[in-house]
Amino acid sequence: MEELKILRKCDLCDRSGENMSLLSANHKEKGWIKVCRNCWSELYSENRMVAGSTGSTGSSQDSSSPCSSCPSCCY
Ligand SMILES: [Zn+2]
């Protein structure tokens, strides 16, 4: 039996690695994606994330989320 490995991979630059720290971002066009810190910073500075989608505050329900009850799961 093979265990399912969760490969940490950035959805934007396609870099991957077991030690990568990924952040979830609510991209305005792509929806919820996992990105590396570099890409996250770029998205943030370019204002390409949905406002209020990061952090623990703000709206917990978002229509673009793949599952409405958990905004940053499904990975
Ligand atoms: Zn990246």
Please, could you describe this protein's structure?
The chain is an alpha+beta fold. The protein has a domain of 29 residues. Helix content is 12%, strand content 16%. It has a two-stranded antiparallel ribbon with strand order 1-2. A hairpin with a 3-residue loop joins β1 and β2. The site of zinc ion has 8 residues, from β2 and α1.
Quickly list its features:
75 residues, two-stranded antiparallel sheet, 1 helix, 12% helix, binds zinc ion
- What average pLDDT do the residues reach? 77
User: What structural class results from the helix and strand content?
Assistant: alpha+beta
Rg, nearest Å: 13 Å
Ions, cofactors and other ligands present here are:
zinc ion
Q: What global shape is seen?
A: elongated
Show unreliable segments: 56-63
Number of E strands: 2
Amount of helix: 10-25%
- Helices and strands, in order, run as EEH
State the oligomer.
single chain
The main sheet comes to: 2 strands, antiparallel
